[in-house]
Amino acid sequence: MRKLNVCWYVYTHESRLVLLASGMQCRTFTGFQLSSAGIVRLPKFDMAMAKPEANSKPVLAAEDVYIVTVYGRIYCLQVDRVAMLLHSYRFYRDAVVQQGSLPIYSRKIAVSVVDNVLLVHQIDAKVVILYDIFADSRAPISAPLPLQSRGFPRSYSSSSRSSGKDGECSEVNNKIDHEGIIYGDNWTFIVPDLICDVSNNFLWKIHLDLEAIAASSSETPSVLEFLQRRKLEAIKAKQLCLGIARTVILERRPVSMVSKAIDVLVSSYSLSLKTGSYFKGIKTESTSSGVAKTSVARSSTDVSTSRIDGTSIRHESTAGVDSEYPSRASTFSASESEENASSAPLRTDSRDLQLGGGKVDRVNLTGAHSSGPTDNPVFVNISEQQDSELTSPAISPDEMYKFVFAAVEEEMVGDPSYLVSIIVEFLRSTNMEKIKVHPNLYVLAIQLLARNERYAELESFVTNKILEPSKEVALQLLESGRQNIQTRKLGLDMLRQLSLHHDYVSLLVQDGRYNEALRYARKYQVIVVYKSANCFSKLYSSIYGFY
């Protein structure tokens, strides 16, 4: 290996990748990835840098380059302060491909990755812009969100208990004041999801508040797609998706928009079944990136915790945000050369990789103070996550019926035609994915159509197999057919098609069609026992008439 004139380097343990910068402007890079099979040398490449108006040549600094891992893919992000762009490069074994650029609105920025979400901190404006680069669109997934500090460990004050009460109160107030400082001058961002506050001896961990993110966007299908890709808080994402689905139906949004939202949920569930991710036991592993278990830095002891809770201090510093963000479209576009690259994408070992953090409330920070040892770390109550086996936010058709359609039907008033249209769209989507639907959803559709006396449409649904035959559907057709003979006949025919001979004979007897019931019972060898003496006498008289 020949020698390189290295100006500086960037390395992350998460990616096992080191980039060596060289050249007059430090824009020529050579990469090496460390793996169990050995050292993989990546092709040398140059980063793009815009030319300033003056003749001076800008020099790239180490703090302008970030190595991040998103969805198992390794990227390099480079800040171009002249062009005010964040360039992205994706690593392959035999190529490094520029993916495009994202606009930045602050002279000073930082980058984090939480649960495969790219966070670009606009430090001057004290806000964060979030990107989900899995999607084709490179637009932000929400409006710019401010950071919010939350989770001061209650145990930090244990070291001050030996002092007087007044001194303890003074120290507590001092610590809380430090907690309220957002984007301090001495903050150091550590990829993927940590912030080190050197001046106040804090180590913050960034989390995502999915509820705040969902509330800040009006693009329902896009929000659902984003939530369905979240893994670290699958239960929360699932609850939000169910709530959004209920809301758009109750608000009677356009059927076309609700249909797109339904397609997102159904396709996500179908994919989770194919990949086997719908039901899997939660495996909490302590990884080098400290995600499932966070090693919280202290001066004389390390405390392994899953999320530290405490006082919540909201710091809303969004004044002037609108003026800070001109309405210009993202210039991030996929490079065509990526499709032509003959090499496989460079990834990290999944056994060593755990991406992202957990919960940004506008983006949340949970902190640890290095004031001394403690034996009583405070844990967030995450029993709901630990007890559940769900690792995917995908929503099954049974859950859609129980938590969306049945709940909405109880709250909706007026003409049920809109809800019927939504149910039909859901049935269309599940049929395309070849997913079985809960029979009670068909029953609900029959009830809604019969309530509005739309019997002709109901008959069309049955004959065209929009409503799949089942015993539940047949019995509901019989129930709704009390006001319409043709509908009741549809129910009887369905019982016969399903070979539910006993139920069919029983209903014929209830209708007084004794001879027909006897013929059918003899043909299919159906044994029916009746305890009613009146019914038995009628059958007895029919037997003589029959023979």
TrEMBL record:
Low complexity composition bias: residue spans: 150-162, 327-344
UniProt protein name: Mic1 domain-containing protein
Biological process, per Gene Ontology: regulation of autophagy
GO CC field: Mon1-Ccz1 complex
Region (Disordered): 150-170, 290-378
Family annotation (InterPro entries): RMC1, RMC1_C
Mic1 domain ranges (all copies): 383-525
Compositionally biased intervals (Polar residues): 290-309
Spans traversing the lipid bilayer: none
